[in-house]
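A favour, since you know our structure tokens better than I do. Could you add the entry underneath, on a fresh line?
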Amino acid sequence: MGEAVKATDNQLNTSAIREQFPVLEREVNGFPLAYFDNAATTQKPLSVINALTEYYSAYNANIHRGVHTLAEEATTAFEQTRAAVRRLVNAREAEEIIFTKGTSEGINLVAATYGKAFIGQGDEIIITGMEHHSNIVPWQMLAEEKGAVLKVIPINERGEISLDEFNSRLSGNTKMVAICLASNALGTVNPVKELITAAHDAGAVVLLDAAQALPHMEVDVQALDCDFLAASAHKMYGPTGVGILYGKRRLLEKMPPYQGGGEMIKEVTFARTTYNDIPFKFEAGTPNIADVIAFKPAIDFINTIGKENIARHEHALLQQATAGFQQIDSVQLVGTAKEKVSVLSFNITGMHPFDIGMMLDATGIAVRTGHHCTMPLMERFAIEGTVRASFAVYNTAEEVDRLIRSVERIAARVKK
């Protein structure tokens, strides 16, 4: 194989960025860690780690209900994160941001509240053939319960959907369109602005799964005009166990609560209960206070570098890896859409993805293997799974070159 195409790191000071991530200092199996499992979860900078420690050591208290100093400090920090999320996605107001456990819970919340209230017998729900299980199963459950119809937009060999195919499935019965902004298994970026416009013209509402998009690209909910958007903190340098659900106020106010308990109420008697205003109507019980607070430094980290700079850096790494893999005869790329985030899925002829992943791990390279919670997508390509390398702002051209060389050596073994 010829020399791998190299990206340059001179757009960002990657050395300074990497110094903020303690885990990147470690070795795995005697080799420096090269972490390419960012689509599953990103590593955390010291600012996030320190925020967790500071909350528990300096002002641990429950929020919204106390008048003492610690409670007020915790409440302020918690709500500062909500405001930061509002700015990140450009929601009209902070009250349109609901904290969840993650993307999956956000989608389930919409299916279990808006879906049950406004989708009925014979109504239609549209998804795509590249969706994560968390954007398939809740709609299947709802369709089965309500007698609704689930329609799927097929994808082509490149891993792209067609606007014509989408429009052919829209009808006057379409009530919900739930689609990923970017595919976790292929990296495909969907033309969601056009899809949203068409869906609205048909009278449907649109939910975007932005778990793989929000860490990598600018997402403006007002410009897109999406009705709901779900994402996860842990995929964007934040803690696990925290997600966000954006919803338009007029829709959130019409939706019944997701869970009952403290905080989501205004008044409770044994005769009846009146519910709290949004967003608190959907945040029953004591939330994940520490991790929500620690999510703000992750957002600050992204904003300091800039989404445009992050996207440019990650795209260069994706181009480098793609070009390198294309020079290895036995490597098949899965997902070659024109518009992609920094996800590269591949297989090697004659090898199982798990075996490839284990061989890469033996040299300190972390990738994800399997079906990536997209089993219908794998069936579409008639494969069991893939090896997925996904890039983040702290990855370097040298690491990608190391990945290419390692895959080349593994592929050479098969030939023998």
